Every structure is written in C-alpha cells, then in structure tokens.
Amino acid sequence: MKASSNTALNPLSTNPEAQPLRVVAPAKINLFLHVGARRSDGFHALESLAVFTQAGDTLRIAAAEGFSLVLDGPFGAALAGEADNLIARAARALAEKAGRVPGARITLTKNLPVASGIGGGSADAAAALSGLVQVWGVALSQDEMHAIAETLGSDVPACLMSRSLWMEGRGEILTPVSGLPALSMVLVNPGVAVPTGPVFAALKTRTGTGQAKAPDGLRDTAALVSYLRQTRNDLEAPARAMAPVIGDVLGALEQNGGLLARMSGSGATCFGLFASDDAAKNATERIARSAPGWWVVATQTISSCG
Q: Which residues are catalytic?
C-alpha cells in the first residue's frame, strides 16, 4: 500500500483528489498492556506499546448532501444493528467543529473482526476523520483533530496517528516511537466475544504503570522479543478465564513457530511475532487448516519512522 504525502493525520490516506477518497484503517496491536489503578474518571491508568499493521478496514468517502453509511466486507453484517456507528459519530463531531452539515457517503469494508481487541472501531472512526477533512476541505490542526478523536474513544487518538506509539493515561497520552523493526506477524481471532468491561472487572493482578520504559534502539525482531518478554498483557488472564479458547490460540501460534504469542488489548485477538514473512505465512496456512472457524491473517507492521 502506498503512503500519501499527508502523513500528519493518517499515513495511509490515498490521493485526496481521487473520488471517492479511499482511506485505510489499520489494526492496532498492543504489544504489551500494563494496567494501573482505577482513576477518578472510572478509567484505569494504562501503559502500552502499540503498533499498527497493514491488515485493516477500508473506507471510501465521497461528498454528499446527506449522510449515509454502507457496510460490506466479511464482518460488515456484525455492525448492521448498531444504532450509532462510530463513523457516524466522527462525522457529526467533525462537522460540528467545522460548522457545516455532515454530508458524506461512506462505504466501510469491514475486514477486521468486531470488538476483538485490535482497535477496529476506533481505527474506522479515525480514518473517517482523516478522510472527511480532505473531502470537506476542512483546515484543522493536529491538536484540534486529537481533541475530537479523544471525545470518540480512548483509542481513537492513537488510531489517528497510526504509527508505533507509547501509550499512557487511559490511552490518550501518546509519544511516537521510532526505530522499531518491521515485524512479521500473524493475527488470530477464535470468533468469541470478550466484553472489555467484564474483563477489566475480573482483573485481579495488575502490573501497574511506570514499570516499563519505551524501547530504544531495538533494531531487529529478536531484540524486540527480548524486550517484550519483560512485559505482559494484564488483561490476558481474566480474558482467558472467560474464553479459554484464547489459550488454544496462543498455543497454536507458539507451536507453529511464533517467537512470541500474546493477546492484544482486551481480546480475543492474539498475535504471534515471527522471524520472517515466509514463516508467518506458513504458520497462517497451518493454523487455518487446523482451526477453520478462526480468523487468521499474516501481516506486517507499518513503519515506525517519520
């Protein structure tokens, strides 16, 4: 996929002169996730290293008098019953800020599983913001865009940047991380729903924040894996208790050559890091054969440079 010159808002937006504008919404992967104490606003303090992948949803956006959203793709039907999709909320929020009517025709090709711990809905909202500012010709600063994104959800600001990030606060305090190696990765979702709220409620052991430092100079996969072995996803244990199949997914990734296997976010999607794209592809084929009901995708991370 070719990056556009407009990297400030979404590094994977295509030529803004194209009609309709095509924008991708990359999956967000939490390489680790440490959870701290619950804050006065009800959110837990978090600490995470997040990366974004070439696997993602696609939005096609065109100007229109009214607003419409068409859903397609392998997981589009799962969103059909939503009364207020995040994309529609993003369009309204941006239109209100810009002082205009939220007129747009958007088609969402939903390639990522819904509510699966890889930021799919947040990525879709961020891609809508990024695309609509171009389609509508709206001039907003990054800070203004970030402020709008934050009202839509904790992960939306990160997805607006779609690059390697150190995440703090409830996920809205973001520091770009440069120099990470490109990662060969396999994503697996076993097709079970793991609601975020109950996972946090069942959390018994927290690593806490301030326990890890942002990586520096990890130029190859082996070095990054060594760094990640000193971290964990605190939500993995309660999610596995609710959905034991997550353990089967992690085992499949490890048994098929994964250098590291871990759950992303609140689950149930898990990722495996592999030594090469070929190793990831081979693992994907083997896992898909052994568990035909699972969603299995080989992908690569988006460059952290820039």
A: 28, 155
